[in-house]
Amino acid sequence: AAVAQLGQKDGFFGNSALKIPLPPSLQKAEKAMRMLGMGKQADELVLSMNRAAEAAVPEAKTLLVDAVNEMTLEDAKGILTGGDDSVTQYFKRTTSEPLTEKFLPIVRQATEQVDLAQKYNRYAKQGAKLGLIDKKDASLEGYVTQKALDGLFLMIAEEERAIRQNPLGQASSLLQKVFGALK
Fold first, then answer.
1. Which of 2, 51, 53, 124 could form a disulfide with 138 if both were Cys (CB 3.0 to 4.6 A apart)?
2. What is the pLDDT along the chain (183 residues), one digit of tens a residue?
3. What is the three-class DSSP state of 111?
4. What is the Cα–Cα distance from 130 to 80, expressed in whole angstroms?
5. Cβ proximity of 136 and 143 under 8 Å
6. Is the dihedral of CA 125, 49, 111, 88 positive or negative?
7. At what angle do helices 140-165 and 39-56 cross, to 10 degrees?
8. What pTM was estimated for this model as a whole?
């Protein structure tokens, strides 16, 4: 459900809770850009960042399904007896690295279409060397990829919370059997 919701037009851009803003290091410059008549470029960059995340998220489905298929009995026990976000934590632990590898080229391709992305990367790398910008924000592609992952895991956590609150009303028959056993 999280992949379907986020992997469509406005999955990120149209959701105020998940919309990816300019990186904090660029938000200060955004005001100046707008005053200098560059608001359109800033808007295009924000839109392209969100569209890049929306394009990347569908790649998660296969990896998430693979993580379920590769789940051990120990993993399943941990999910059943773990906290309210144990499924989300399992997916983070088992899929974050491969999701990053899948998302990054898609995000890179989408953000390369905006000239500002290359300029940002050039300045941000210099800023990171000088300690002015956090290294994780020194690449626009890396920033957007991380925000896409954050949004995906946030949506998975919301789905998990809804299932745990009402296991019989939320899920397929398999999930009903698993979570119904907890009542």
1. 124
2. 899 999 999 999 999 999 999 887 777 767 777 787 878 877 888 898 999 999 999 999 999 999 999 999 999 999 988 888 999 999 999 999 999 999 999 998 887 777 666 766 666 666 566 665 666 666 788 899 999 999 999 999 998 988 888 776 654 555 555 555 444
3. helix
4. 46
5. yes
6. positive
7. 50
8. 0.80
